[in-house]
Write a structure and sequence with these properties.
heterodimer; A: 242 residues; alpha/beta; 5-stranded parallel β-sheet; two-stranded antiparallel sheet; 8 helices; globular; B: 351 residues; 3-stranded antiparallel β-sheet; 9 helices
Chain lengths: 242, 351
C-alpha cells in the first residue's frame, strides 16, 4: 500500500517540503496531476469499477506517477484540489463592479449568497465528482488543502480587494468542507500558524519565484509551508483505519 | 358591389383559414413598424414572454439585458435565479398593473407596505419576485440590497429602449389590501403566508387593464417619446382560477379582456403594434397542436411557429437556423423546464 498525494499545482509546495520532514519520503509520494484549469471540466470517470482520468494530461501524469492508469483501492489517496479559488477570484466581476452582498457598497452590484454558492458549486463540481468517485470505488481518500490565499496573490494583483478575496474564498472553503463532511471524507487543513489573522498566507510562507521560469510566483506556498503540511498529512494518515 | 367585394383573401374565413394548412395561414401579422437589429429591445411579461426574449437574443437582435447573470454562473442555473429571462431580473409580470407598479417602485413613486416574506427557516423572499432566489435570500439586508440594485437597473430601461415588448398574461391577481400592491403569486404558494385580512383576489376588468396600459404608455413616452410598443397576449391558459367560474371560462374571460385591450390600444396609438401569438397558438384552427398534452404548456414547435411568423414579417430579420422545423410539430417536446412560470406552482396546490 502506498500513500499518494496528488492534485493541482499546490502539490508543488508539498514536494518542496518533503525533504525537510524526516521520514516523509518513506511515508508519502507526492505529485501534481496537472494545472488547475483542467479541474474546470469533467476530468474523471468510473470504468469497470475503477476511477480513471478522462483528461489526457492528468491520465498521463497518473500513469508515470503511479505506474497505473487508475486509482487502486489498495492505495491511500490525499487529493489536493477543491480549495484553489483563483479561477473565480480572477473573474472581472470582483474587480470593482460587484461584491458579495454582505460587503457590497451601494455603488456595487450585490451578489447574493445563493448566486455566489451556485458559482462556487459549479467551479468545484468536477473536483467533487472525482473525490466522490474515489470514495464510491473504495479508495481510501482524504482531501488536502491547497495553500491559503495570498494577500499579494494574482487576484489581488488584478485589483480584487482583500475583503472580497477573503469573503469569497472563505465561503468556497466552507462549502467544500461541508460537502466533504456530508460525504464522510476527512480534510487536512492548512497549519494555522501559516496564516495571518484574516486568513491570508503569511509572507514568510509564500513562494517567491517560479524557479524554472525565473518569474514571480503570486499563487503558491513555499517549502516551509510544504513541510508543515506534509507533517500534518503524515499525522492524518496515521489516524486512518485502513 | 358591397363592402366585402374589395376585401383581400385574408378577410375571408374559407380562403384564409379553412382551406389552408394552419401552419400556412398567411398575412395574419403585418407589422405596423419594422423591428430591426439596430433597435434596442426590452421585454417583459408573463412566462410566454421568456420565449420572445430568448428568440430575440438567439437571432442576434439588440436585446437589452440590464441585469445579466454574473460570469461564472452556469447557463443551466441562470433561469433558476431569474437571469436571462427578461430585460431585468423582475421575474414574470402577469398583469399590466404589475408593470406599472414596477416602474413606480423603481422611480420611488410607490413604496409598497409589503416589504418581505420571512420564512420559518429565516430565509427571506421578495414578495414582488418570490422565486428570484430559489431558496430565498439569506437575510433581509441581502434582499434589500438586491432589490435596490434591481430597481436601479429597471430605472434605466425606459430611456434605453426603442421597442418595449410586453406579453399580457392574466387578469387574475392578488392584491395587498393596504395599498393595492399587486403580487405576482398568491401568498402561501411560492412564499409568504396567506392572510385574507392582508391580501385579496383581484380580477382586472377591461377598463382597469386599459387604464393601466395607457398609464404605462404615457409614462414610457414621457421618458422616451420615440418609444414603440409591441404587445402580445400569452396563449398559456390559467393554471387555476380563484373565481367561482370554471377554469376554462375564467381563461377565456381573461384572454378576451387582454386581447380586446391590445386591439384597442393598437387602434388608438400609432406607436403600438399587436402581434397575434395568442391566435397563432390558441385559436381553434390550430387544433391545439402547439400545446403539450396538458393543453396548457406551449411546445417548442408552437414557440417556433409563433416566432417564425414574427421574424418573417420583419423582413431581413430571418429565421433562426436552429429553430425547430414546423413539420416536427407533432413531436411531444416539453419546453416547460426552460420556461419558469410561477403560476405553474399553483398546480401543486390543486386538489
Amino acid at each position: 500500500m502506498t500513500v499518494y498525494v496528488g492534485g493541482n499545482s499546490h502539490c508543488g509546495a508539498l514536494k518542496l517540503g518533503m525533504p525537510l520532514v524526516k521520514g516523509a519520503d518513506e511515508a508519502l509520494t507526492v505529485n501534481a496531476f496537472g494545472g488547475n484549469t483542467l479541474e474546470a471540466e469533467p476530468f474523471s470517470e468510473i470504468r469497470d469499477g475503477r476511477v480513471e482520468f478522462t483528461s489526457r494530461p492528468y491520465a498521463k501524469t497518473l500513469q508515470s506517477f503511479t505506474g497505473k492508469g487508475y486509482f487502486d483501492s489498495d492505495d491511500i489517496w490525499g487529493i489536493c484540489q477543491g480549495t484553489h479559488y483563483n479561477r473565480f477570484l480572477k473573474n472581472p466581476l470582483w474587480r470593482g463592479p460587484a461584491a458579495p452582498s454582505a460587503i457590497a457598497t451601494p455603488k456595487q452590484r450585490p451578489i447574493s449568497d445563493g448566486v455566489l454558492d451556485a458559482i462556487i458549486e459549479a467551479d468545484q463540481a468536477h473536483v467533487r465528482t472525482f473525490i466522490g468517485q474515489l470514495k464510491k470505488t473504495g479508495v481510501p481518500v482524504f482531501a488536502v488543502s491547497c495553500a491559503p490565499v495570498r494577500r499579494d496573490g494574482s487576484a489581488a494583483g488584478l485589483g480584487v480587494p482583500p475583503e472580497v478575496i477573503l469573503a469569497i474564498s472563505s465561503r468556497a472553503r466552507d462549502q467544500f468542507l461541508a460537502w466533504l463532511e456530508a460525504h464522510d471524507i476527512a480534510f487536512v487543513g492548512p497549519p494555522p500558524e501559516t496564516m495571518d489573522a484574516d486568513g491570508f498566507l503569511l509572507p514568510e510562507y509564500c513562494q517567491g519565484m517560479i524557479e524554472k521560469l525565473g518569474l514571480p510566483d503570486p499563487v503558491h506556498a513555499n517549502a516551509a509551508y510544504g513541510a508543515l503540511m506534509v507533517q500534518r498529512i503524515m499525522d492524518h494518515v496515521k489516524t486512518m483505519a485502513v | 358591389m358591397n363592402p366585402y367585394s374589395n376585401q383581400p383573401p385574408k378577410a375571408f374565413w374559407r380562403r384564409a383559414v379553412s382551406d389552408v394548412s394552419p401552419m400556412e395561414i398567411a398575412d395574419i401579422y403585418e407589422p405596423r413598424f419594422k423591428v430591426d437589429k439596430s433597435m434596442r429591445i426590452v421585454a417583459a411579461g408573463s412566462c410566454f414572454a421568456q420565449h420572445i426574449g430568448s428568440e430575440f437574443k438567439k437571432r442576434g437582435f439588440h436585446f437589452i439585458d440590464a441585469e445579466p447573470a454574473p460570469d461564472g454562473l452556469p447557463d443551466k442555473k441562470q433561469h433558476d435565479f431569474g437571469f436571462d429571462m427578461y430585460s431585468a431580473r423582475f421575474g414574470n409580470l402577469y398583469s399590466v398593473r404589475q408593470l406599472v407598479q414596477l416602474f413606480a417602485r423603481a422611480s420611488g413613486d410607490f413604496k409598497p407596505k409589503e416589504v418581505a416574506w420571512v420564512e420559518a427557516d429565516g430565509r427571506v423572499r421578495d414578495p414582488f419576485r418570490p422565486s428570484i432566489e430559489p431558496d430565498g435570500f439569506a437575510s433581509l439586508p441581502e434582499m434589500r440590497r438586491d432589490r435596490a440594485y434591481h430597481l436601479g437597473r429597471v430605472r434605466t430601461l425606459l430611456r434605453r429602449a426603442d421597442v418595449f415588448v410586453f406579453t399580457f398574461g392574466l387578469t387574475e391577481a392578488w392584491e395587498c389590501v393596504a395599498d393595492g400592491a399587486i403580487l405576482p403569486t398568491c401568498p402561501g404558494t411560492v412564499g409568504g403566508t396567506f392572510d385574507a385580512r392582508k391580501y385579496r383576489f383581484k380580477n382586472f376588468t377591461y377598463p382597469e387593464v386599459w387604464e393601466d396600459a395607457e398609464s404605462f404608455i404615457k409614462l414610457a413616452l414621457s421618458i422616451n417619446p420615440d418609444m414603440k410598443f409591441l404587445f402580445t397576449v400569452s396563449p398559456v391558459p390559467l393554471t387555476a382560477t380563484a373565481t367561482d367560474d370554471h377554469v376554462l371560462s375564467a381563461t377565456v374571460y381573461s384572454k378576451s379582456v387582454l386581447r380586446a385591450v391590445c386591439g384597442d390600444l393598437r387602434a388608438k396609438y400609432p406607436m403600438v403594434d399587436y402581434f397575434p401569438s395568442f391566435e397563432l397558438v390558441s385559436s381553434h384552427p390550430m387544433r391545439a397542436m402547439y400545446f403539450m398534452p396538458n393543453l396548457r404548456s406551449v411546445a417548442t414547435a408552437g414557440v417556433a411557429q409563433v416566432m417564425n411568423v414574427f421574424f418573417k414579417a420583419h423582413q431581413g430579420a430571418g429565421v433562426a437556423e436552429d429553430a425547430p422545423v414546423i413539420a416536427k410539430a407533432a413531436a411531444v417536446e416539453d419546453t416547460s423546464d426552460d420556461v419558469v412560470c410561477d403560476e405553474a406552482i399553483l398546480e401543486a396546490f390543486g386538489r
